[in-house]
Every structure is written in structure tokens, then in C-alpha cells.
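[Q] Does anyone have a clean C-alpha cell version of this?
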Amino acid sequence: MRTYLAFLPLWLIAGACLAQSPTIDKIRKSGTITLGYVEGAIPFSFIREAKPEGYSVELCERIAGDLRQQLKLAKLETRWVALTLQNRIEAVRKGQVDLECSTTTRTLARQQQVDFSLLTYVDGASILVRNDDKLMRLSDFAGKKISVIAGTTTQVAMTKLLEKMRLDTQLVAVPSRAEGLGMLDKNTVDGFVSDRVALFASGITSPNAASYRLLSDLYTVETYALPMRRGDADFRVAVDRALAGLYRDGGIGDIYNKWFGQLGPAPAVLQALYMLQGFQE
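[A] Here you go.
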């Protein structure tokens, strides 16, 4: 059996594997893949002209297109479901979406609930402050307030870091980036901590863009990946096959430039991430 299997075409082997996947079976029968997104995470996932867009959204759209070819379907409809930063993992765990496409950091704790694709981005948490405030580093926030999005890895990491530094800084939990930025606008907090690229995008798209600046320090490392239902190995391989192809053939470069071009070339750590994950078939 092993001798003959070695000569089977790759697409035939892949097709045999996909037939074992409950997620693939559902997608094949319904002709639809269900994708989740979180609004307000520019440039990763956001709404423009009543349609989800962004870097992570486009990755999921490319995956859907590749999956249609893997399954040899005439067409595959894409259904988008709006999620929040607080309910995204639970929505994946319950099978309400097949993939979640925003800024979810892959952690060991989350891997107890869901599976993840190959890594899609690397970022880190920084703090957005008002230009007029003389705040340059975390120690300057002693006795001050920083807003942070509830239920995120940033909230957990910053809580531990402040305890370690013995700073009497108050973290104010908010449900979204918009609310965190709004509190900074209203002077009810002294800073807003979140992933650096998302903070940068939020700042430059705000009506008060000229009033903000980002601190240079990074306080966490955030490795983004796409969550999916746990235990469906063949669906995960199908998703990873699509991403690895993008990384391997250079298609990821066009996607990066489309959404992050104004920030300059991809940093070395991100280029290495793409190169190391461009696995061969």
C-alpha cells in the first residue's frame, strides 16, 4: 500500500484527507465557508462600504479561494459574521465560524480551546499618548490611568508587568479600540495600550490624529494566527496549505504592501516568519 501511495498525485492525497474533515464536509455540503471578523482593528479587519476588509480579512479570502480549488467546487460562497474581541474564541469553539480573521494572538491557553493556523503576523503592545503629555516610558505612568481592551493578551501581560514594576498605574478595561481611544480623547485616561500597528492605524484615522504619538517601547510580543475549531486536523492542513503557498510564492508581499505599505518594508522578523513557514508540499 505504501509503495503505491507514493505515486499518487498530491491533489488526490489531499482530497482523501479533506474527506475526513467535519468542517470540510460542512463547507462542501453547504457551499459556504463562514468567516468571523472583528470591526475596528484597522488595518487587519474593519468595515468599509458595508464590507469587511483588511490584511487578515484578505488572508481568509485567499484561503477560501484556495479551498474552493482544493475541493474542486464550482463556487464557494463566503459568509461573514461580526464578532467582538471578547466572544471571538468562543464563537470558533462553538463552530459559529470556521475561521476567525482579525488580530488574535496564538497562546498556549487559547490552544486548549481552539486550533490555530500558521502564524500570520508579529506585533507588540505599545502605548498611545497625547502629544502634550510628557510620558516617554512605562515608569512615567505611576499614579496614572491606561485604557486596555478587556479579555486580550495585552491586558494580562500589562497587569503582570505593572505588578512586577510595582507601579500604581490603573488599567481601565474597555470593550473596544474605539472606546479606548475615546477615553484618551476625553482625558479620562493618560494612555491607551494595544498592539502597535492597530494603535498606529487608530491614531492616524482619528479626527485628532495630530494630537497623538506612540511610545517607542514594546511591552509584549503578539504572534497572530487564525483560530479554527479544535481537533479538525485536516481542515487545519488545508488552511495552512493556502497560507504556505502565499508565503512560498511571494504573494504575501503584495498583500503586505497593500495594507502596510505606508509603514515601509516588512520588518526582518516578519520576513523571517513568512520565509520559515513557506513549507513545501
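[Q] Thanks! Anything notable?
[A] Residues 1-8, 10-16 have pLDDT under 50 and may be disordered.
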